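Render Methicillin resistance protein in 3D.
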Amino acid sequence: MRRVRLEELEGASLLQSGFWGALKQAFGWRAWGFEGEGGQVLVLTRRLPGGMDLAYLPHPWEAVETRLRTGGWMVARLREIASLMERKPLFFRVDLPWEEGPPRGVLRKAPTDIQPPSTVLIDLRFSDEELLSSMHHKTRYNLRLAQKKGVVVREEGEEALPLWYRMYEETARRDRIAIHSFEYYAHLFRLARTWEGPKPRVVLFMAYHGGEPLAGNIVALYRDRAVYLYGASRSQKRNLMPTYLLQWEAMQWARGEGAVDYDLYGIPPRPDPSHPMYGLYRFKTGFGGRIVHRAGCWDLPLSPLYGLYRTAERVRDVYYKRVRKLFRR
């Protein structure tokens, strides 16, 4: 195992690229690149209260052989990485990219997943007719309705980001989701222009009706996979189904740019009508494709203080999910 510069770090996926490390480094993380058995890997570290670091790996070793996907192999690689870091972290937290999890033992299941474990992958190596036929009939109807009603999708530049972000703020209020500052998304586009290493093509697609903006998606194409990163929509004219046409046009664009698949990035783990994001599940799975259930987040403790950190996490979780609701107006 050896250290590599972020500009040299290609990684198997967008979240394992030096580009992604540089993005996160601009907003409070420190990014490290390593190369060894299993390929390249990005590690993000952050200082914890008390002066220790946590180390986080988003979807590392995605392309590693199945026979190596064991807790023992991964633990050995993580310990190698720790030996090369300036400060030994309190623990490693790893969002596994595989559908199978490591055997329990040294690794412990993390209390929360950072990246959504479940997603929908659309195979783009098919004709339009085949892609449409694989969709739920209601999804086909909705995207054709948008076309019939005159919704138009355009690829926009960075100058449209302020308009998109205002819609994103509206989406966050309506759906009660957390979002980054405007600067985060602006930096994403700037970095996609200026980064000197392997980088994605980042595109903003906007849907209009009669010149009025209705919705917008940010999509990144890295290597042969397009990823739907962020989506915003207004509450007005939702009956025109602009979000359906946006996804379809993004898939068309991605295929034309050489993408093999399109990652809709994040769904609830099961079709549970009581889940607060059940509508998102129906929306994304309606496009067909393959539902992937990854193994989620796992921890490798490196210090006896790890147990104290887990206790603090549980207390914080109780506060944010239960206690704070009592005071919400």
